[in-house]
Amino acid sequence: MKLEDLRGPEAANARTKRVGRGVGSGRGKTSCRGHKGQKARSGGGTRLGFEGGQMPLQRRIPKRGFNNIFRKEYAIINVGDLDVFEANTEITPELLKEAGLVKKMKDGVKLLGDGELEKAFTIKLHKVSKTAEEKVLAKGGKIEVI
């Protein structure tokens, strides 16, 4: 097979409909738009979601809920994930990002208590859960909230 032998599917190269080329073409005069009316005009038609003056669905349906614009969202990490570091390491958000344990900082980093801790660490993070704090202190580590 050669490059010049390649052909697309039959429908791939359908010819475009040429309208407004005389009465004899079958698509002349009104150019397939019919007579008068909104859709016959240039630039005619309605915007997205318009329902002919009826109250649109978007506005008919009740709106629910509340979005707090002051909400803080924390990147989370579990106690069990910290064992990749050596004992007595000072763990900071920057160190976690370098190690690839946290992808986006968001509004800070929160330590959660899932998993088991094998070593003692000094942890400096934005938030720490109670169970995580208990596990770190039980191993002889320190916690400092930034």
Question: Characteristics of this structure?
Answer:
single chain, 146 residues, alpha/beta, Ribosomal Protein L15, Chain: K, domain 2, three-stranded parallel β-sheet, 14% helix, 14% strand, elongated
Overall description:
The termini are far apart. The radius of gyration is 33 Å and the shape is elongated. Helices cover 14% and strands 14% of the residues. It has a domain of 71 residues: Ribosomal Protein L15, Chain: K, domain 2, CATH 3.100.10.10. The chain has three helices and six strands. It has a three-stranded parallel beta sheet with strand order 1-3-5. A three-stranded parallel beta sheet has the order 2-4-6. The mean pLDDT is 91. It has 146 residues and is α/β, with parallel strands linked by helices.
Oligomer: single chain
Q: Count of DSSP E strands?
A: 6
* Number of discrete helical segments: 3
Shape: elongated
Overall mean confidence score, pLDDT? 91
